């Protein structure tokens, strides 16, 4: 093993004392490096785990393995992970993990089985540096990894690094491996670095430039890095032209890859990271096992994608549809037979069944419940906060939950009775009036989402109330949500927040305008995404431009001869 190398990478231009980029960039690498510095950096958004994995697969191929632990992005209270990504830092331990992943990825790409796909030149001598060939290999890779052409200074730095590693290891391919690993831990890959230019429509203001728009479009609609066609459109200045931007976005929402964008959006909106933490009491719920746990989130996403993308359905029908998908693991929970050879199969709940829509999915019901019992309060709060965008205050620290938690009480056998006793405290009642009328209608589903007719031998009352309308059960609740404008305004505002990483700053007027267009298009999710992707407000910079700090990251990427 050779001596470890230190890589200093900065968010602005890479400051290095290296020689100029190899002039056999006149034997021209596929894409010439930038001669001018980057524009004003105004925002940074850290890649999510899915975006990282999708980017590696799209750039290098789906057979390249990505193994390791991803440091989580902290979700701001009542907001999206997409918003938290704009202020997410990487700890030293997290960087160690990214470094290990980068080295493993680079080793695969330059191994004997893969390297020919990525090398359009061969070194003059595989044991000594060849800066011309190194540049021809790294410049196209850098364009995809950094989502823009590399600068001349960056090319010089990475080529120099490859050369030094080649000298130490006696292998051109090991040198390339180290240079690529360093690129994979650059902030320009781990973060979507957004740059801006003067906005001709707003004197003194800024708007995202073409390359930043390419990334925003691709991560919003496809949850992955921009492809060659989108980068070329950006390089040709097409994405700041409203007509051309609309045409490109139209093609993207018609692509099958929109499914990936929709999955990522709803996984963020519905707090799917909680599935990783979900645990159930095996004594209370013996049917709950790892296979069931892993199937719950996928069932919800399949149902959402089928309704909104495949069927091109009305978003409001997401709360009333009886169509879903199940597999063998979920069969017993839904009392349906599915063989192991069938995989995921369409399934329709019977007309008299109280199962319908998103809230009837076992994943939602299990996620918003306790380990050994259901929770009308957790479920009602999730509906308020996630689907209606109506934050609910946290309970005071000194609340006595004894009455609610006593699930064996013969005097108060049902959750409704126990909550009524608990709510005798006016401090508690204020919040429970917000949550419980939406959670109690779901009480015929236990803590893992299985149907039940009674609790502790007592009949379950599923009466509910929402916006002055009384209803019964999950089906009634789904219809009430589908009829509420708050439901569609919430998803419209979330879509803008997801795309931009910021909450609409004008007290809901912007979200209201998006919702009106959403309504005109029949509440189709593709229309909502298209509207957000093409509206000028999504690319205007409202905040003070970011002054890019000089961030030094030291990697211990080793090269083995």
From TrEMBL:
Where's the DUF1588 domain? 355-455
Leader sequence residues: 1-20
DUF1595 domain location: 133-194
- UniProt cross-references to InterPro entries, sorted A to Z: DUF1585 (IPR011478), DUF1587 (IPR013036), DUF1588 (IPR013039), DUF1592 (IPR013042), DUF1595 (IPR013043)
Alphabetically sorted, this entry's keywords are: Signal
Which Pfam families would you find in this protein's record?
A: PSCyt3, PSD2, PSD3, PSD4, PSD5
Annotated DUF1587 domain ranges read 45-110
User: Which parts form a coiled-coil structure per UniProt?
Assistant: none
Q: Does the keyword ATP-binding apply?
A: no
Q: Which residue intervals define the domain DUF1585 in the entry? A: 468-534
Which segments constitute the DUF1592 domain?
Answer: 208-335
**Under what name is this protein listed?**
DUF1592 domain-containing protein
This protein's species is Sphingobium terrigena
